[in-house]
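--- STAGE predict ---
source: upstream dedup step, 1 unique chain passed
mode: sequence only
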Amino acid sequence: MKKVKISIRICGKTATANLLYVDKSGKTHRSVKQVEKGPGDTRAAVEIKALLAGLQALREPVELELSAPAHIGSAVKNGWLDHWAASGGKKYDGKPVKCWELWEQVHEHLQKHKIGGIHG
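--- STAGE serialize ---
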C-alpha cells in the first residue's frame, strides 16, 4: 500500500493540501491542491475544504499520514468524526457540527484509506 502524506496549510484566503509520496523506484512526487476562501467561509471551513481536495485527488487506497490544524487532527484522531457520522452530524451534546456537509464528505473519503499517523 502506497504511503501518502497530506499537509494542510492556510495563508490569507488560500488553503493548500500538499500531497507527498514516494513511488516504488524511490522517486518523490508532490501534488498541491488549492482552495480559495469563499463568501461566508470560516478559516476552519477552508481548511476542511483543502483536506477534502487532497483526499479527492487520491485514486487508490493508501496509508495516509495527515498533518493538519488541531481541529482537523483531533476530529479524526479522537474518533469525533466517526461519532458525528454515526449521529447524523450531531456532537455529544446534541448540537449540530459546524460545516457538517464538508466533514461528512471527509469521513466518506477517509473510509477508503488506512490512517497511519495524524499530526495537528
